[in-house]
Amino acid sequence: MIEAIKRLLGVGAAPAEGTPAGPEASPGFDPLHLAACVLLLDVAYADGEFSAEERQHLEKVLERHFSLPAEAGIQLMALAEQERRGAVDHFRFTSQLQRGYDTGQKMVLAEIMWGIVLADGKVAEHEHYLTRKISNLLELEPGYLSSAKEAAARKRS
Predict the structure, then answer these.
(1) How far apart are CA 40 and CA 119, in angstroms?
(2) Is residue 123 part of a domain?
(3) Mean pLDDT for all residues in the chain
(4) Which of 15, 59, 62, 66 has a CA between 20 and 30 Å from the CA of residue 74?
(5) What's the alpha-carbon Rg for the chain, to the nearest Å?
(6) Structure pTM?
(7) 19 located within any domain
(8) Can you tell me the distance from the alpha carbon of 26 to that of 86, in angstroms, rounded to the nearest whole number?
(9) Span 97-109, mean pLDDT?
(10) What is the pLDDT at residue 11?
């Protein structure tokens, strides 16, 4: 019984066969990049659709901010998609970013999230909510989030 609870909580137990091992155990990619990509994909899917504009924006972000060639960016997105589907919440990813990113890097991530939200030209209520929620989990002040949204909007125009 205790082992089942540990597995459920992800404490001290190896993942079950066929279960994603978590961003810290994924080979070949920086675990912070993977954690960030999972959250960015979740924001992209927040309105129920991962549009071509959102995909294109994310691919450019992975190339520009993570210095990944196009093929590596696609592989990271595929791995992040597996992680996203297996996740029960955002805490695992945000806590990793909380430890590994400074405030400036978190601000850039917030701006990227808003860039994805704005990429298709409309802001769904759940996209707005999820962006705020992730920013709160990253302990970004509301003013930072507002600045990130404005910066993303300026880049889009």
Answers:
(1) 12
(2) yes
(3) 84
(4) 15
(5) 16
(6) 0.80
(7) no
(8) 14
(9) 94
(10) 41
Q: Per-residue DSSP letters for 80-118?
A: HHHHHHH-S-SHHHHHHHHHH--HHHHHHHHHHHHHHHH
Spell out where 11-106 has E strands.
Answer: none
What pLDDT, on the 0 to 100 scale, is given for residue 27? 55
Long-range contacts of 50-53 (CB under 8 A, 24+ apart): 51/119, 51/120, 53/119, 53/120, 53/121
Over the range 32-64, which residues count as b (16 or more CB within 10 Å of their CB) and which as e? bbbbbbbbbbbbbbbbeebeeebbebbbebbee
Query: Tokens 């889009």 label which residue?
Result: 156
Tokens coding 154: 């300026």
> Domain for residue 80, yes or no?
yes
The CATH number of whichever domain residue 69 belongs to comes to 1.10.3680.10
pLDDT digits (tens, 9 = 90+) for 57-95: 999 999 999 999 999 999 999 999 999 999 989 999 999
